[in-house]
Structures
1.
Amino acid sequence: LYQFLFIYVCRDNTEVCHPWTGECECKAGWNSKDCSRQCPILTYGKGCHGICSCKNNAQCSPVDGSCICPPGFRGKDCSEECGLGTFGEDCTQKCNCKNGATCSSETGQCFCAPGWEGQYCDRPCSEEKYGIHCNEKCNCKNGAACNPQNGSCTCSPGFTGELCEKRCEFGYFGQNCQQECQCNIDNSDGCDPVTGKCICKKSWKGVKCETLCAIGKFGPNCDHDCICKNNSSCDPETGACVCSRGWQGENCDQPCEKGYYGLGCKEVCPVTSDNITCDHVTGEYVCQAGYIGLTCENPCPARTFGKDCKQNCNCRNGADCHHVTGKCHCLPGWMGEICSIPCPQGRFGVNCSQHCKCFNNGTCRGNDGVCRCKPGYTGTQCNESKTSVVYIKKH
């Protein structure tokens, strides 16, 4: 007859080794004959009899059942999603998404509203594009600006129509062709549809084609000197000033009031959000570095920056840069001046600011913190052992 003797080799996680039978009595959080295995997933405590109540794939402590929340969740059982504008571990990080974009509660990644792109959704669609993901093609004509959200057209002076495909009718000019030419009808061939400048017939001169005298002269014999400034002309009989574009006053020495431009200072500058105004003569805007558009309303398109958006970002690994300074905004998982350095081990996320939660020498992905486990371990945090039960059998 064979006599079997079972000798259990109790591991460090043993609370008591029975002196007669040699059986191992495991500490809370451990089980198996030799106490070498952690409690199975979703269980905890002495004998692994407790049932975990953690939500949203949170890790449950095999010892006491407390929940270790994944990025994007918080609360005792990890059932509470990060509030609006926050993300990451314990929801302590703030989203930087702009222009109505939403933010991933886990990684902080921005999901842009129609018309916007870039890491933080702070760039309008590139030229000729609009809509969700900037996938739609604009149809605006004649240098018109295309609304990046819905594709509607804002016409350049001298054009009108839904797509800005029509030139102003004779006798009209300017933004949306709303201004009437102010030229002497008999002495002119209308006005320039863009600027409103009168096109004088042969021999006629002056801002409104009102005189045969040389510029700066008036009177029956054109022998009196005008006192009008800024290339303005004067009435051929009275000498009263006829101001050139962008000027007003008795002697045409005063620029148009803020917000107005053009002939007679009757044209209205397009409204802007930051209280800048247009050139009092041409109606054009001189954009500051980092901005473009008819009214300088849009920051540079993605991956460009600086004056007139003519400089290209020098950022690596898919990163964008600040539209004014060119400073790189690294994608999750990267750091450094040009985003060329991967996160150091143990860190992940935006600016490598989040801590990995991988156990047993597991490593985590730099962009989202997903754990890669060493052989012998598994689980979302590499804290589940694959080790087989070890015991010795003799006969």
2.
Amino acid sequence: MCNSILAKMVHMKCRSKVYPFSNINRIVFPDSLVDWSQPFPDYSPEEYNSPGLKGKPYADPDLDDPNFHPKWNSLDGNINRKSHIGDYAVLNGRPLNPEGRTGIKGRGVLGRWGPNHAADPIVTRWKMDNGTKILHTVTKLAILQFCAIQRHDTHEWAVPGGMVDPGEQVSITLKREFMEEAMNSLQSSPGQLEKNKQMVEKFFNTGEIVYKGYVDDPRNTDNAWIETVAANFHDEDGTSVGQFELNAGDDAKNVKWMDIDKNLNLYASHSQLIQYVVKLRGAHW
């Protein structure tokens, strides 16, 4: 069984001045006006919908498509339009970001209007020397390492996560993303691929959910946002996945076992996800 830790995530990175992969500027405004309940009569953000979404199988149609009738806050066929944090408001046919204003409307580069569901496998092991845990010189706590990938798009280090396919169970997404991004299962030989799959299958049978909810992602807009289920899969003695040679694949530029401490600077809200794991494991931070 997995234990879940539900927590509120700070809404900051999705208010950066320029929207990612575009030249569209967000409206800049004080923190006091983020919440939709706060009057902001002059709020009139620019709309941006990436032209690259047209015709993509993972993307919703435009909201003005006469054949598009999404069921907000519901399981819409095999598309999950529910939010982990409760029902979101819908205004004039548009879902509203439950964490408030972002300075840009539309769906940006995200495929779905409303919640876009992701899964983030946080795979960890202890930093060891000849089978003995290495303790931090100051805190005297064991140092935890996690499987980190470097993204091709932003070059930032991150957890090897990805979007949940329609109708796919989150547990399947977690395993798939780790295999594709950290172990390069797409390019492994058939024999090695089968061996890796068996090892990962066994390893991913147990895990603990450390976060379920909204993600402060720079791609978020007023009408589309990312939510995730982040789960920790820990190799206590380093004899399972922790012994694998990691190979970058899919949209990962590089991959490595990265030491965890409070100075981590990771993509989106991944540093906060890592901190939940540190608390769970009683590791150095």
